[in-house]
Amino acid sequence: MVPTSYFLVLSAVLFGLGVIAFVFKRNILTVFMSIELMLNAVNLAFVTFSRALGQLQGQVFVFFVIVVAAAEAAVGLAIVILIHRNRGTLNVEDVNSLKN
Amino acid sequence: MPVLDYLWIIPLLPLLGAAISGIFGGRWPKNAILAVALSSTTLAFLAALEGVREFLMLSANQIPWTKDYFTWISAGGFRADFALSVDQLTVVILLVVTGVGWLIHIYSTGYMHDDPGYRRFFAYLNLFMFFMLILILSANYLLMFVGWEGVGLCSYLLIGFFFLKRSATDAGNKAFWVNRIGDFGFILGLLLIFRTFGSLDFAAVLPRAAGMAADPAGQIGTLTLIALLLFVGAAGKSAQIPLYVWLPDAMEGPTPVSALIHAATMVTAGVYMVVRSHAIFLNAPVAMQAVGVIGCATALFAATIGLVQTDIKKVLAYSTVSQLGYMFLACGVGAFGAGIFHLMTHAFFKGLLFLAAGSVIHAMGGEQDMRKMGGLRKKIPITFWTMFMATLAIAGAPGFSGFFSKDEILNEAQRVSPMLWGLGVLTAGLTSFYMFRLLFLTFFGKQQYDERKVHVHESPKNMTVPLIVLAILSVCGGWMAAPQLMGGANHFQQFLAPVLSTAAEPAATSAAAAESTGGGSEILQALIGAPVIAGLLGFLLSWWLYIKSPGTPKKIAASLSAPYKLLSGKYFIDELYLAAIVRPLVWISDKVLWHVVDEGAIDGTVNGVAEVSHEAGDRLRRVETGNIRSYATWIVLGVLVFTSLLLWMVD
Fold first, then answer.
1. In this complex, which of A23, A97, A99 lies closest to B629 when CB atoms are compared?
2. pLDDT score at B356
3. How far is Cα B287 from Cα B384, in angstroms, rounded to an integer?
4. Least CA distance to B618: which residue of chain A?
5. Who contacts B549 (Cβ-Cβ below 8 Å, separation ≥6)?
6. B629 has a chain A CB within 8 A of its CB
7. Which of B15, B240, B426, B636 is the most exposed place for a label (fewest CB within 10 A)?
8. How far B633 CA sits from the closest chain A CA (Å)?
9. CA triplet B164, B170, B172: central angle to 5 degrees?
10. What does B455-502 look like in DSSP terms, one character per residue?
11. How do residues A57-97 score in pLDDT, each as one tens digit?
12. Minimal CA separation from A54 to chain B, in Å
């Protein structure tokens, strides 16, 4: 059997990649995808612990996260489309009207 | 026992009157307001009469009759109830307050009839009655203090009644501040009582104080300290040296107020409080001496100022201070019953004097300077005759009420200290002089006003009837003590004896009993004679100066200009206080408290806090770039920091 730590390391690596992509990418769509990547990294960790501890809660959480992520994707993509329409750009650095 | 069981009804009635006319009476016709004010005090007086009737049917072991209505304050070991109680002492003062108060209310309906502020006036006056009744009916010191402060408040409101007049508001403020000093002493006394006895109930404190060993003469122990602090409070309320300065100025209030509050009732609250606490005072010889000496000094001091005043109300004001001094002199020599007796007769004749003076002022269209009156005797005969009765009473003419009470005080004083007695007799002479001077200047001699300008007229019935009733009381009010002169018993003293004998009877009283039965009655007669002779001399001097040769006073004033200036300047005590206390206080308040403490420390702290947060906010604002990636970076860094902290702590 594959040891638990392997899964966790994979989860951490995926999460780290998501974070790095989130911080450094400029395109909103890419940023959005990096968020999905982080979510799924967390899902993987949940499932791993669920298996290691022999409990179902972790898997229940995963279902929740997937449902919420679907909703978030719908809303998020709608926002992305609106930003594109209003501003004509998908560069996050241009979306800073909260400043000042 | 309908009233004794529901004692609260007596103070409640005037409170209701004040609330109804004060809160709802805004658009009511004048007669409705007058009816409310008058009926509430009438009912209170009737309730008090019924209460006294029931009280007289109680057996001795039911007295003091105390009713505990509810717990007012309960905190830790401290407990104070809303409890009212009645004993013989309360009965006397209760009748004086409700009775004289009722008469003065009737008088006020005439006197204040044309004043636009009549509604405010009667609301305050009713409220005063409420607090005064709480003061005398309370069964513990704390509730008494509520009444004490309440009457002070009403006094302040009524002194400043004509609030558009600068001098009236100043006088109100002065009364309030001077009373604060006295009340501060009173509060300290209460705290010390609680610390010593663990309670503020009269029933708990006074018997224990009576049972304690007396402080040795010349030393200040706990009881002496309590007594002295209580006396500071009494000196403030009852206008004794050095806190008397507010009472003469209090004459800025309407005349019925001067009669009710500043002559008959409120200012005697200090005497009542001292007599109520006599168990403490009797075990505190130093305090007793202080009370006696200050009382005697005040009596003489105020009487000398009264000699040269020209404002009719000012003469009466100084006379009040002087007579209050007599009451404290009585307390100081252990003759508490005599003090209360004088309190009662004084309420009659001084209330009457003020009301009659009000009637004179009313007749003169507001003039208060006696030098501009003269010859009023025939024009306002009722006022003249009633005032004449009151003057005879205060001057101590034999047979009148003041004669009995004053002689009793002086007799007791003579047993303790011949010097106090001598000064008391001198004061009696001065009293007689300045009172007849007032009478002669006002009612006799040449007319000093312009008849075309002043339309002199007798006051309406609702003003003269109270005058007549009070005149009858001023004449007969002392007869309860009359049998003593014939070698019998003093009914007034006998009535009060159960209250005043809770403490060991002062040696003086038993000595008095021995003397009056033994061969000392001749001496007694001679001593009674001295104040009467002094009073007669005062009268003759006054008659000679103001009737026989009216030019003489001016010559005397001119030849003795220094003493005359000292007296007419009231010994310049006000100026002294202004220079020694008021000005430095104002200076400190202005330069130190305002500009340094208030502006510097307090405003500085508050503004400083605002400044710091404003500045910090301005700096922190730069962190908010609006750039989502920098936010994410901060979050990641934060998570890393916390995670490593957690890991480090687990290891």
1. A23
2. 94
3. 42
4. A100
5. none
6. yes
7. B636
8. 6
9. 90
10. ---PPPHHHHHHHHHHHHHHHHTTGGGGGGGGTS--HHHHHHHHHHTS
11. 999 999 999 999 999 999 999 999 998 998 888 888 777 77
12. 26
B223 Ramachandran zone, left/alpha/beta (phi>0; psi -120 to 50): alpha
**pLDDT tens digits, one per residue of B38-61:** 999 999 999 999 999 999 998 888
How many helical (H) and strand (E) elements, i.e. helices and strands, does chain B have? Answer: 29, 2
pLDDT at B96: 93
- Nearest-angstrom CA–CA distance, B402 and B346: 7
pLDDT of residue B487: 60
Contacts of B325 (CB under 8 A, 6+ apart): B240, B294, B295, B296, B297, B298, B299, B300, B301, B302, B427
CA dihedral B139, B141, B144, B146 (to 10 degrees): -130
ipTM: 0.76
Q: Please tell me the distance in Å from B643's CA to the nearest CA on chain A.
A: 13
Flag residues of chain B having pLDDT under 70.
482-489, 501-528
Query: What totals of helices (H) and strands (E) does chain A contain, helices first?
Result: 3, 0
- Which residues of A fall within a CB distance of 8 Å from B626? 96-100
Structure tokens at A8: 């966790």
DSSP letter for each residue of B40-88: HHHHHHHHHHHHHHHHHTS-GGG-SEEEEEEEEEEETTEEEEEEEEE-H
Q: Compare CB distances from A99 to B625, B633, B636 and report the shortest one's residue.
A: B625
Tokens matching residue B316: 């009466």
Nearest residue to B330 (alpha-carbon basis) of B274, B397, B390, B267: B274
Q: How many CB pairs under 8 A join A and B?
A: 27
Q: What is the largest CA-CA distance in chain A?
A: 56
Mean pLDDT across A28-44? 92
What pTM value is reported for the model? 0.79
